[in-house]
Amino acid sequence: MTDSHLSRSNAVGPLLSGTTTIGLGAAGVGVGLTGVFSDVPAIRIGWLLPLLGVQLRVEPVGGFFMVLTGAVAVAAGLYWIGYSRHEKFGAIPLMALPVFVGTLLAVPAAGSVTTFLFAWELMALSSLVLVLTDQHRSEVRSAALIYAVMTQLGFVALLVGMVMLAAAAGDEFAGIGAVPDGVRNTVFVLTLIGFGSKAGLLPLHAWLPRAHPEAPSPVSALLSAAMVNLGVYGIIRIDLQLLGPGPRWWAWALLIAGGASAMYGVLQASVATDLKRLLAYSTTENIGLITLALGTATLLAGAGSQPAAAVALTAALLHLIAHSAFKSLGFFAAGSVLAATGLRDLDRFGGLARRMPVTTALFGVAALGAAGLPLGAGFVSEWLLIQSLMHARAGHDVAIALVMPLAVGAVALTVGLGVAAMVKAFGIGFLARPRSDAAAAARESPGTMIAAMALPAAACVVLAVAPGAVGPMLTRVLDTLPVFGEAPALGVFLHLPGLHASMAPALLAAALAAAVLIVAIGSRWRSRQRPEPATVPLWACGAEDLTPRMQYTATSFAQPLQQVFDDVLRFDTDVEVSGQAASTYVVERIAYRARVADVIEERWYAPVLRAVAGAAQLVRRAHTGSVHLYLAYGTLGVLIAALVAR
């Protein structure tokens, strides 16, 4: 085969894989919108699974998540085509990407417990294959091992909980009715563990900062902006819609888990120097805010504060949309930088604004959305969450009166640290002078990657300026959860029913644009009135010239936060001083190393991994190769299952 034939065949595979992914994503958006605004007939495929078959039924809640997943998949498929020019993919990842997207769409479309579990496990396996794309590196294998252990342990909890639900109320979601309280509480705990592990809630988050950085960037976008959403979908669909309303401690569990995840995630993001690891911890932060909003909505609805509960639930759904947009854009931009420089370390970035101006501007849109600042995609949803917490009517409920101010403080701290993390990522990474030869030689990404990044960037702008565009979809989803009351009016003005609060993001944008225009016109007019300025050298504190060593790095920028939160972050430093051979008093070299460990991962999951490895060694001894022994194992398993079912 000639070189031209090889290059053609290497180009056809990514094109076919990306195009199929785009088609699946577009179909998911179409079917999801249909399920949100109208009734979609249920589909049963009896031959695909033994006994019960596969049952698909798109409800408004599931349709909403299909729209989010499909939109991210369209952008990821387009990005995959251009990204494959820089990272050559084998046949297995090329086939696994459309399969992964198909399973992502099948989970919210599942109409029965059996179908849901089947699609969930296929989603986990196909995502594991994609994480192992560059399996020759030890970091990738280690990340895949942690991800496999976490996802399978979470699936075991989910499997037991869902089987208990099916045994008590039937296999089909549409037919689930009253469930005994003891079963409901047990199912809630087990499913919260299973869904929380997939969503990346604390302390089940350990796989995110490992798997996201090592996966290809379009896969990282799908993991962070689509797959983790399905953990939230499980909480809403199974725990709140089918099992709820539950006892008050359900709401406390969601609120505490969400608040802890948000604060811990943003702390780790604020000190991370690996750009993709920073974005992964940002995912834990934002999913934590969403879960906190769900817990707040459940708590306030049970306390009779329906208007504030509706605002909190609207904040959760709107932030899901915003997070999908700015997080996919962030990973796409990080992938563009990685393709151009081969780097992920922010300490070695710098100067990319001049060499990759479009990527820099698009990452700025993502950073603004993740920071939760005005005119950012995440601002409106976080403002709604704050309003629901501030306007909660505690009445004589002392617990709510005490917890709501603490929740406001947790959200405010999370948003403030989120601003610091994104300022570090954007300012240190893209501005100033390049701190490595690779950053100095960077080139802008190809058109397909730019076009893929432009799609979520446009969504970020719409959500920041005109969030009313998604208002009808949110209203329709909220109508299926009547316990939460009337949805806020998301128009030009954001009116909150029952609360004395309103806002107009479009007017904020118009005022900012007018202010910038006035300043630009005034500056240009004054420059014409002044004489020609003299050119003088830049003052450099007595030095001859400024060098990259004189500017902040990501490590030095985050050092004050590391000192303040040292008890949580466990910041380790090591200084090594090397002297000359002639005299140890003459310093030849000073090496400084800093490391911020994930305390939960090191103290909790290292023993778990050792236990899993030990169990695997024991199981390996049972694999003797005897067919009769394997049949005996199967018979024993069937007997145990029959006794448990009985």
Automatic annotation (TrEMBL):
Keyword Oxidoreductase set for record: yes
Record localization: Cell membrane; Membrane
Its membrane topology: Multi-pass membrane protein
Record's keyword terms, sorted: Cell membrane, Membrane, Oxidoreductase, Transmembrane, Transmembrane helix
GO process annotations (BP): ATP synthesis coupled electron transport
Pfam families: Proton_antipo_M (PF00361)
Source superkingdom: Bacteria
Domain NADH:quinone oxidoreductase/Mrp antiporter transmembrane: 110-396
Transmembrane segments: 21-43, 63-82, 89-107, 113-132, 144-167, 187-207, 219-237, 249-267, 287-304, 316-340, 361-386, 398-426, 447-470, 503-522, 627-645
Entry-linked InterPro entries: ComplexI-like_HydComp, NADH_UbQ_OxRdtase, ND/Mrp_TM
GO molecular function, one term: NADH dehydrogenase (ubiquinone) activity
GO cellular component, one term: plasma membrane
Keyword Transmembrane helix found: yes
Name of the protein in question: NADH:quinone oxidoreductase/Mrp antiporter transmembrane domain-containing protein
Species for this entry: Mycolicibacter sinensis (strain JDM601) (Mycobacterium sinense)
